[in-house]
Design brief:
- The complex is a heterodimer of chains A (about 325) and B (about 325).
- An 8-stranded mixed beta sheet of chain A has the order 6-7-8-3-9-10-12-11, with helices on both faces. In chain A, strands 2-1-4-5 form a 4-stranded antiparallel beta sheet.
- Chain A is built from 10 helices and 12 strands.
- With about 325 residues, chain A is α/β, with parallel strands linked by helices.
- In chain A, strand 1 (about 5-20) and strand 2 form a beta hairpin.
- Chain B has a domain at about 30-40 and about 75-225: Rossmann fold (3-Layer(aba) Sandwich), CATH 3.40.50.
- An 8-stranded mixed beta sheet of chain B has the order 6-7-8-3-9-10-12-11, with helices on both faces.
- The longest helix of chain B has 18 residues, at about 185-205.
- The two termini of chain B are about 35 Å apart.
- The chains are: A alpha/beta (about 325), B alpha/beta (about 325).
- At the A-B interface, helix 6, helix 7, helix 8 and helix 9 of A face helix 6, helix 7, helix 8, helix 9 and helix 10 of B.
- The structure holds adenosine-5'-triphosphate (ATP), adenosine-5'-diphosphate, iron/sulfur cluster (2 copies) and magnesium ion (MG) (2 copies).
- The site of adenosine-5'-diphosphate (ADP) has 16 residues of chain B, from strand 1, strand 2 and helix 1.
Chain lengths: ~325, ~325
């Protein structure tokens, strides 16, 4: 397999909490607390977990839209952690972001054509004719008409706006697209359209995706490998087959069991966790999950478990597997 | 029958014209039943619920037709204050965003205790004890301590439980829950679902559950109303809706959702889409609202609105596939 396209090692993002007149740092939010993952060309990595576990922060830090507190991001064999602004800028054409909320991520005063032309003007030395051709090509790829290019974002539905966002992300021929909850703001009947679009674009352009989401059924559909996060850490990493057919971490098992199944006669054993996710300002000692874990033992309170590879590509962080 | 909604019409006057947000909606609710209202955003689920409790902002909105029979009285014919006093403690509503019904400046204990003193004439100490008891029933840990906290000090899941506690404080006969778990994580959602099932069992509370999540609908409801563009398009018991959907929209919805394990077990990699998008309520197609997206559309569908037709006993669908369309279209001219 060789070098992965993207490799994140021991990444940490700690946000300082400041208080008082002199804005002293009184503590930290351990939003991302030492995560590692890699992404191969043409594959999709999913990052799942409950609200506040650090998914968005991890995605932002990978793009260096937030500076990580520690760790490295190696993209195409180069460590981008020390890149200066101009090198970062050219790296960013290679890694694009699509957002959860198609409503707020598009400039309301620009037509779709202008929105799509913007990155082409900044990054490419295209003639205006070349830009026009590129825009027409992009609109067609995401299923919009040339006529729609002359309209403004407010004239579109949520699903269409997400198509515009995808066209914009594609405009500079990136190799990686990070989607932060790319379909969760959309209606059920529209989600399938966008998921199918993402899959067909990936096949056509050999794109690599990082999909951040909380809908595990959608993630299974879209992702080849999945990282399950809890309180700033990855607790399990596996292929979609293994994660869904043989989840090992007690948290993954609870998450999967909690998903309501659209089959009324289906009954399943549900694992209730009780309590809420603790604050990432004061993560519990030992295993972060121990206050909610139905299987927690004495050592879980004292010792932090370390990652254990169960089988090639399936890693779990839990004392039960040490 | 506890609540009987008949041909309800609630319209909004907008710049684009009249939006028929709820158009000829009828369903009823029995004691101890959980009925689900499913459908995509903007199809009129919330407006239906808000019409019952007269929460529609007027103008621009107005109930322009139909009846809402509760306890032998037609709520539509009553004034807003009469509706409030009739329903006050007997019908409670919970919302997607708990902060809309919790007051940020009072402790949650005080707000719930107020419900007890208002509706059940409980004294101060009794009201407080029952509040703590109710918080315990909705599974808020350390309820004595939490009762003294303000809404912002609770997590999203706990706020939602506090709101349910408040809604239950007056021991309502009907609980209307509008997307009560949409903003919550699945693990917390599972607990709220479990809580609602226990309410039904222990208190015989009838619940109207509004959600776009078909998984949640399948888990707890016994009957389902599917809405599309302001109208009911299908209604049946929950098992029939999922196992024998009749309306092409319901069929399309059920096919378009990814199912857990579908790819891992069967390698599925393509979702069946519903083409196009939901029409604007101010610019609806002349005939069947689903016509522009329907894979089964026939010529009769374009200009003739189908009625709700009984396809199986207790199962209705608003679709020409099940009616004698030639004859009916003729009769209507
Ligand atoms: N700029 C910031 N300053 C301080 N804390 C932050 C900042 N951004 C995020 N956080 C905190 O870091 C933690 C992780 O946030 P993040 O947005 O990454 O979560 P998430 O997993 O994306 O959640 P969601 O599913 O709700 O989007 C949260 O506790 C959040 O409050
Ligand atoms: N206050 C209002 N003014 C104008 N239109 C409204 C108002 N409230 C709701 N509507 C319209 O009524 C329709 C149904 O809304 P709603 O019942 O909230 O949908 P949902 O099924 O998502 O709950 C929507 O098209 C919405 O735009
Ligand atoms: S280490 Fe212990 S507490 Fe943590 S997940 Fe494993 S069993 Fe549970
Ligand atoms: S009435 Fe016609 S267009 Fe409407 S759902 Fe039925 S078949 Fe489709
Ligand atoms: Mg996020
Ligand atoms: Mg609503």
């Amino acid at each position: 397999m060789g070098e992965p396209l993207l490799a994140v090692r021991d990444m940490k993002v700690h946000f300082p909490i400041r208080k008082g007149l002199f804005a002293q740092t009184v503590g930290y939010v351990y939003a991302v607390d030492g995560i590692s993952f890699s992404l191969e060309k043409g594959e999709t990595l999913g990052i799942v977990g409950e609200s506040g576990c650090g998914k968005t922060t991890a995605g932002m830090a990978t793009l260096r839209l937030i500076d990580p507190t520690a760790g490295s991001v190696v993209f195409n064999g180069e460590d981008i952690t020390g890149f200066n602004r101009s090198r970062l800028r050219s790296m960013r054409r290679e890694m694009q972001l699509i957002f959860q909320d198609p409503y707020s991520s598009l400039n309301p005063r620009m037509t779709v054509n202008q929105i799509l032309e913007h990155p082409l003007k900044i990054h490419e030395r295209f003639s205006s004719r070349q830009r026009k051709e590129r825009i027409a090509y992009l609109l067609d790829k995401v299923g919009l008409s040339a006529e729609q290019g002359r309209r403004y974002p407010h004239e579109f539905s949520g699903g269409q706006r997400q198509r515009i966002g995808i066209a914009r992300a594609l405009s500079l021929n990136p190799s990686v697209i990070i989607g932060d909850e790319p379909v969760s703001a959309l209606d059920v009947s529209i989600q399938a359209q966008i998921i199918n679009l993402l899959i067909s674009l990936q096949e056509e352009f050999d794109l690599s995706y990082i999909i951040i989401a909380h809908d595990l059924a959608m993630v299974e559909f879209l992702c080849d490998h999945i990282a399950v996060m809890y309180l700033g850490k990855i607790v399990e990493f596996a292929s979609y087959e293994r994660l869904y057919l043989n989840p090992l971490h007690p948290y993954t098992q609870a998450l999967l069991s909690a998903i309501p199944v659209p089959e009324p006669r289906h009954t399943k054993q549900r694992i209730f966790l009780g309590g809420d996710v603790p604050s990432p300002m004061h993560p519990p000692g030992g295993c972060h999950f121990h206050p909610r874990c139905p299987l927690a033992g004495e050592e879980c309170r004292r010792l932090e478990p370390s990652p254990k590879t169960i089988e090639s590509g399936h890693v779990v962080v839990c004392h039960r597997y040490q | 029958m506890l609540l009987d909604i008949q041909n309800l019409k609630t319209y909004f006057h907008t710049f684009e014209g009249i939006a028929k947000a709820v158009d000829d909606v009828s369903f009823s609710l029995e004691q101890g039943e959980i009925i689900g209202i499913a459908g995509e955003s903007g199809c009129g689920k919330s407006v239906t619920a808000q019409s019952v409790l007269r929460l529609i902002p007027e103008p621009p909105g107005k109930i322009v037709g139909g009846k809402i029979i509760f306890d032998g009285q037609d709520l539509v014919a009553r004034s807003t204050s009469q509706v409030r006093s009739i329903c006050g403690k007997r019908i409670s509503m919970i919302f997607q965003e708990p902060m809309t019904s919790l007051n940020p400046v009072y402790t949650i204990g005080r707000q719930i205790a107020e419900m007890f003193s208002l509706h059940q004439k409980a004294g101060a100490q009794e009201g407080w004890d029952r509040t703590v008891d109710m918080l315990r029933k909705v599974q808020i840990p350390a309820p004595e301590k939490r009762a003294k906290e303000y809404p912002h000090q609770l997590s999203g899941g706990m706020r939602q439980r506090a709101m349910i506690a408040m809604a239950l404080a007056c021991n309502p006969e009907i609980l209307i829950a509008d997307e009560p778990t949409t903003a919550l994580d699945v693990t917390v959602q599972a607990e709220i679902i479990d809580l609602m099932l226990r309410l039904k069992k222990d208190f015989q509370t009838a619940i109207v559950l509004i959600t776009h999540d078909l998984g949640v609908i399948a888990e707890i409801t016994t009957r389902v109303v599917v809405m599309y563009a302001g109208k009911i398009v299908e209604q049946a018991d929950t098992v029939s809706i999922f196992e024998n959907p009749r309306h092409p929209y319901t069929q399309g919805l059920l096919r378009s959702i990814p199912r857990l394990g579908q790819r891992a077990r069967h390698g599925a990699r393509h979702l069946q889409e519903i083409q196009g998008m939901v029409p604007s309520l101010t610019d609806l197609p002349a005939g069947c609202s689903f016509f522009p997206r329907c894979p089964e559309a026939m010529s009769v569908c374009q200009f003739n609105l189908p009625d709700l037709i009984e396809t199986d006993p207790g199962h209705t669908a608003r679709c020409w596939l099940y009616g004698d369309h030639e004859q009916e279209a003729c009769e209507r001219g």
